[in-house]
Amino acid sequence: MEPKVSVIIPIYGVEKYIERCVRSLFGQTMTDGVEFIFVNDCTRDRSIEVLTAIISEYPQLESQVKIINHLRNRGLAAARQTGFDNSRGEYILHLDSDDYFEPDMLEAMYQAAITHNSDVVVADFFMSDKKGEEYCECFLSDNKEILLKGIIAIWNTGYKSVFAYVWNKLTKRSIYTKHNINSIEGINVGEDLIVTIQTLYYADVITKVNRAFVHYNKQNLSSYTHHNSAANTRQRLRAIETVADFLSLKTSVYDQVLDERRFRKYIVGIVNCDRAELQELLSVYSQFDYEKFKHLVAPHWKLPVKFALQGKIGRFIFLRNLIFFIRKIYRTIYGR
Fold it and tell me: What pTM does this model have?
């Protein structure tokens, strides 16, 4: 009998968090019919030792657990794809190994899927950082265009979002297989956007569970998404281009929000990367029109960003450093 749900968990550099993650899985109110697939992406720390020790405490679940070892470090997207390729569940759920689930997540999400014959089930989540936890509500629209635009352009208050994350969505395996939806090796930042846009585009029945289950850990400084380097910016832009290539074959209604997303991710990159990376980004991506997109730039960044796009690097760096200095003082005084 095939499993009801496959939970896929990539592992790399999470020794500090893996125990909490695994116990949140093995302590679920629904474990019958669930397979747990851990993909070791050649982690260099004790994550796998911790994992195997915890598995030994749950002998009743050992037959439902797989550990797959990559021969070399291949990145988050490849680890997720390896997990999927080795899974058998009717539904797929992802979990990053520095995050964790509420105890009844699998039961509640799967029950919703069965009740409504859902292609995708969406839930709210908790955003966890050093200040505490914030409840993040997802908004599900019956209009597919509004739904997808809300994911692409989450900064736009005109759109409400279910977000691009894969770990708050239980998705029917057949959606992936029928439409050949895969994680793309080498795109480890922004990779959720690629998968989520495609699965939701093809989903006929999308159901919302009005509870938060996933605790999304924003305190892991070593995670892929924590850094805004030139390399990560390139990956984010590749992810956007992949989505644009997919959607452009269907319709042109997403072109504007995709252009805006490109610009915003690009600006985040040049604002945060070092001087050598800045020169690289500016030379590789020179097509952005400041006047067209300046409404997307925060007021205090308008002049420095304009300087950067004009190639006035010295002026940009001076203003950037000044803004960072003022922000540091503000946060020291007000604790923000």
Answer: 0.93
